[in-house]
TrEMBL record, chain A:
Entry superkingdom: Bacteria
Family listed: Belongs to the GcvP family. N-terminal subunit subfamily.
UniProt xrefs under InterPro entries: GcvPA, GDC-P_N, GDC_P, PyrdxlP-dep_Trfase, PyrdxlP-dep_Trfase_major, PyrdxlP-dep_Trfase_small
Oligomeric and partner information: The glycine cleavage system is composed of four proteins: P, T, L and H. In this organism, the P 'protein' is a heterodimer of two subunits.
GO MF term (any one): glycine dehydrogenase (decarboxylating) activity
Protein name: Probable glycine dehydrogenase (decarboxylating) subunit 1
Taxonomic lineage from the root: Bacteria, Pseudomonadati, Pseudomonadota, Alphaproteobacteria, Sphingomonadales
Encoding gene (name): gcvPA
Transmembrane helix as UniProt keyword: no
CDD domains linked to this entry: GDC-P
NCBIfam families in UniProt: PRK00451.1
Organism whose genome encodes this protein: Sphingobium baderi
Signal sequence segment: none
TrEMBL record, chain B:
Keywords from the UniProt entry: Oxidoreductase, Pyridoxal phosphate
BP terms from Gene Ontology: glycine decarboxylation via glycine cleavage system
Protein name: glycine dehydrogenase (aminomethyl-transferring)
Source organism of this protein record: Sphingobium baderi
Keyword Protein biosynthesis: no
Pfam families per the UniProt record, alphabetical: Aminotran_5, GcvP2_C
Region of interest called Disordered, as start-end residue ranges on this chain: 1-21
Keyword 4Fe-4S tagged: no
GO cellular component terms, A-Z: cytosol; glycine cleavage complex
Segments forming domain Aminotransferase class V: 187-303
């Protein structure tokens, strides 16, 4: 109980000020039948710092961490090297232990970071504006569909087959309750994206088309025709980016006409963390800013005329508009946004472009090497740092067996799309700057033995 | 001790009053350093990182290579460290002092939790890694889940919601799925006036019509009004308990029984669970679903706005509808139940709420905190949280109006109003005055049921000495506001910024930085 500073003498003194005999007496409003007489049965009592650390370390050792193995997993979460100063800086107590910046005079640190973050994200995505972050990419994607519904007053969203299946699942869950109609099919093992099919499907009921870039199979394609077709029909184009490092090398969705661009910011600064906390990116055109969900930070001046920053346009938000708010979101991912922003500042334009180029070059080398393994075919020619291999066997089994050999060799399409039996031989492989030539060779040899 | 060149110690000399605080050429004030934006000090050619040489390959971008400048300034590592260190010093944080935000619960964040969360065996795991390689991580989720279920006396828990409001969504979706499973289409959710704004927003997001339930004069849900509104169209009632007035809803069990008798479900906003943890189990009060803000009750850092984490405990009636994925223990193995296994034994699930498995990084922190406290410590947590709040309530009720102070103890937070301040003085003035006194202000103007509300939550991790200093400061401010001290209206005077113009920010929103010449041209 080392985190509780009161002594028994303090407690007695305070109780006498209050005029109560005991702490238990302060719970007088709880009906007697609902009060537990002592500590809850079946749970252990407090443990020392050393004991807790030992227990947690033991559990941590039961995992095979990404750094301990040749590692090729992506599909919405990417392993990148995070410079040491990022984690060092986010652990400064003034960042780590601050609350939502409701009192701007003593929260300029967080607010200026959010303003810088918004600008970095808007520029990266090719948007006019960006918000101060959301929970993650998948929930940001759903929020974008909801925003398109509010703007267009239409309730049918076309989801590309290349959209991350978990993002599709999240949207389907929510749509059951909001009544949006979602149109989606699982992908085919085909190098071409479904952009032509999407263009053909847009009609007068379509609120938006949601397309991922690069998509779940690692494919990339020009989104301009899709944006044009959507706009002609009065619909919006929502683009989803799960690997923001890609935008250091390939054209930004906003520059290809996307109205809303959302993404997963985990790649920069945040780390894998077994799925969370992650960082939702959300940008859009200026004209839609008042329909945007989440927190926004804006520039202003103080009573002495000095520049400062505040949370703004809060009339869109739940604490003012309650049931009419643009979303129910209260928390954002402030600390993850800080990590992203610091990492981006360390990189700068030059570093981001180098990082992206390096990722791509290593991925190209790896793709060519792995495609030489007997029983392996490279699906897509155009990609950034992730591509799909078609194996001669079900990739689910191959991935499990590779794990037993100590190789974390990609994500099987069978795991991602359990209902689409015909793509079970697909393996999505990601290669970042953390992968060495030796890792690729180990992976290739293990794959060769597995497919033999 | 500073030394002069001659090696003698320095001592202050008498200085005339007007020379005490001259303006500085830089705008800096010793340790208070002004910091420009990265866009004003960085450049496209500067970087703080080094990469390995890029292998020569023919790129496979098709025709999509990014050609134009992105517009991202870089800083060297040294400049980066300085930039963010300087900015950090313009923030108040729980590590600096008391942060008495009622309804938000800012308590000490132990550093052991940070150390644990950064163990590579937790931090460096991919969410889609083969299950055989992440058994320890699944064990953490399972162990934390067991604690949450036992502490709340509920049937099961959905771990994936990403924050409190996301947890509300989870609870309401489970309720809606349960109603639909029995072919019962209901359209209304009842929300008391004192609820968090997220409650009605969430209900509306789930497609429900929201109706308010009034509060009684003693700050609790009006039981008769609630009972009379219950009917076949009501899907759920959302109640916060302890509520946002800092009071325990004495009639909770009666409310639950009435709601259940009407065929509806009880959602409890568990944001204030730290007031009762180890002493009261919401399951015993008839709650069907409740989110737990891990950052509030179990001390995961809030990081200037997040991340949060909002697991939702569920009653037996709602458990079959819990979202995917979740962790099950099968023999001595842990299994992550995903879509692929759902047909077999979890057909009722309402689906997936988020791409992966929730806030793993928060789970490790919360579990470390829970194990450190243990069952005995958590009971002491609620005891001390309530003791500290009542100490503040009683120590200030002679200078500040406490609207419900007469009706017995409060729970974990003390509520005051602006009644009795001099004409023209508001809660805002007291809050901004607190900034000058070195404290973060309390929650202002919430709950809405009290005029000029000031909601103070000290939490259990404050010492008596810290509380006494805070009481002294707030007492002094209350006295100044009652005496009509005009200087208070200009506060804060000593913060990095004076009062900021929020109206201007909303009227002419500037949300991204633009090069000055471009910004000028646009005007």
């Amino acid at each position: 109980m080392r985190y509780l500073p009161l002594t028994d003498a303090d407690r007695q003194e305070m109780l006498s000020v209050i005029g109560s005999a005991s702490v238990d007496d302060l719970f007088v409003d709880v009906p007697v039948q609902a009060r537990l007489p002592g500590t809850i049965v079946g749970l252990p009592d407090h443990a020392s710092e050393l004991a807790v650390e030992r227990h947690m370390a033991k559990l941590a050792r039961q995992n095979l961490s990404a750094g301990e193995a040749p590692f090729f997993l992506g599909a919405g979460a990417y392993r990148h090297h995070v410079p040491a100063s990022v984690d060092h800086l986010i652990q400064r107590g003034e960042f780590l232990t601050a609350y939502t910046p409701y009192q701007p005079e003593i929260a300029q640190g967080t607010l200026q970071v959010l303003f810088e973050f918004q600008t970095q994200v808007a520029r990266l995505l090719g948007c006019d504006v960006a918000n101060a972050s959301m929970y993650d990419g998948s929930t940001a994607c759903w929020e974008a569909i909801g925003m398109a519904r509010r703007i267009t007053k239409r309730g049918k969203a076309l989801l590309s087959s290349g959209l991350h299946p978990h993002y599709v699942s999240v949207a389907k869950t929510m749509a059951k309750f909001t009544g949006d109609a979602l149109v989606h099919e699982a992908p085919k093992l085909d190098a071409a994206t479904d952009i032509d099919a999407l263009v053909a499907s847009i009609d007068k009921d379509t609120s938006c088309v949601v397309v991922q870039y690069p998509d779940i199979l690692g494919r990339i394609a020009d989104l301009t025709p899709l944006a044009n077709a959507a706009h002609e029909a009065g619909a919006l184009l929502v683009a989803v980016v799960t690997e923001p490092v890609a935008l250091g090398a390939i054209a930004a969705p906003g520059h290809m006409g996307a109205d809303i661009v959302v993404g997963e910011g985990q790649s920069l600064g945040v780390g894998l963390q077994f799925g969370g906390p992650y960082l939702g990116l959300f940008g859009c055109k200026q004209k839609y800013v008042r329909q945007m969900p989440g927190r926004l930070c804006g520039e202003t001046v103080d009573a002495a005329g000095q520049r400062g920053f505040v949370l703004t346009l809060s009339t869109r938000e739940q604490h003012i508009r309650r049931e009419k708010a643009t979303s129910n979101i209260c928390t954002n991912s402030g600390l993850c946004a800080l990590a992203f922003s610091i990492h981006m500042t360390l990189l700068g334009e030059k570093g981001l472009r180098e990082l992206a180029t390096l990722n791509h070059a290593l991925a190209v080398e790896a793709a060519d090497r792995l495609a030489k393994v007997p029983g392996v075919r490279l699906l897509n020619d155009a990609f950034f740092n992730e591509f799909t291999l078609i194996l001669s066997k079900d990739a689910r089994d191959v991935v499990r067996n590779l794990a037993d050999r100590g190789v974390l060799g990609g994500v099987s399409l069978g795991r991602l799309f359990p209902d689409a039996a015909d793509i079970g031989n697909g393996l999505v492989v990601a290669v970042t700057e953390t992968v060495t030539a030796e890792d690729v060779e180990t992976f290739a040899k293990a794959l060769e033995e597995e497919l033999a | 001790m500073t030394m002069l060149k001659e090696g003698r110690p320095t001592a202050p000399q008498a200085v005339a009053e007007e020379h005490v605080a001259p303006a500085t050429a830089t705008g800096n004030r010793a340790l208070m350093l002004e910091e420009p934006l990265i866009f004003e000090i960085g450049s496209a050619d500067t970087t703080g990182v080094d990469f390995a040489e890029v292998p020569k390959v023919k790129s496979r971008f098709g025709n999509l290579a990014r050609k134009d400048a992105i517009g991202l300034p870089g800083l060297s590592e040294q400049e980066t460290v300085r930039h963010y260190t300087r900015l950090s010093r313009q923030n108040y944080a729980i590590d600096l002092g008391l942060f008495p935000l009622g309804s938000c619960t800012m308590k000490h964040n132990p550093r052991l939790n940070e150390k644990v969360a950064r163990m590579p065996g937790f931090a460096d795991l991919h969410p889609l890694a083969p299950q055989s390689t992440v058994q320890g991580a699944l064990a953490v989720i399972h162990e934390l889940a067991q604690w949450l279920v036992t502490l709340t006396g509920m049937h099961s828990v959905a771990m994936s919601p990403k924050a409190g409001a996301h947890g509300e969504l989870c609870g309401l979706l489970a309720i809606r799925a349960a109603l639909e499973a029995r072919g019962d289409a209901r359209s209304v959710v009842l929300v008391p006036e004192s609820a968090h704004g997220t409650n009605p927003a969430t209900a509306a997001f789930c497609g429900y019509k929201v109706e308010d339930i009034p509060a009684t004069p003693d700050g609790r849900v009006d039981l008769e009004a609630l009972k009379s509104r219950l009917g076949p169209d009501v899907a759920a009632v959302m109640i916060t308990n302890p509520n946002t007035c800092g009071l325990f809803e004495r009639d909770m069990k009666t409310i639950s029984d009435a709601v259940h008798a009407a065929g509806a479900f009880v959602y409890c906003d568990g944001a204030n669970f730290n007031a009762i943890v180890g002493r009261v189990r919401p399951g015993d009060l008839g709650v069907d679903a409740m989110h737990i803000n891990l950052h509030k009750t179990f001390s995961t850092p809030h990081g200037g706005g997040g991340p949060g984490s909002g697991p939702v405990v569920l009653s037996q009636a709602l458990a079959p509808f819990a979202p995917l994925p979740f962790v099950e223990k099968q023999g001595d193995r842990f299994v992550l139940v995903e879509e692929e296994s759902v047909e077999d034994h979890h057909g009722g699930s309402f689906g997936r709420m988020v791409a992966f498995h929730g806030q793993m990084g928060m789970f490790t922190r919360a579990l470390a905190y829970i194990l450190s406290h243990g069952a005995d410590g958590l009971r002491q947590v609620s005891g001390d949280a309530v003791l500290n709040a009542n100490y503040i309530l009683r120590s200030l009720s002679d200078v500040l109006d406490a609207p419900f102070g007469g009706s017995g103890p409060c729970m974990h937070e003390a509520l005051f109003s602006d009644k009795g301040l001099a004409e023209g003085f508001t809660t805002l003035d007291i809050a901004k005055g607190l900034i000058d006194e070195g404290f973060h202000p309390m929650t202002m103007y919430f709950p809405l049921v009290v005029h000029g509300a000031m909601l103070v939550e000290p939490t259990e991790t404050e010492s008596k000495a810290a509380l006494d200093q805070f009481i002294m400061a707030l007492r002094s401010l209350a006295e100044r506001a009652k005496a009509g001290d005009e200087a208070l209206k200009g506060a804060p005077y000593h913060a990095p910024r004076r009062r900021l113009d929020e109206t201007l920010a909303a009227r002419k929103p500037v949300l991204v930085w633009t090069e000055p010449e471009l910004a000028e041209a646009a005007e």
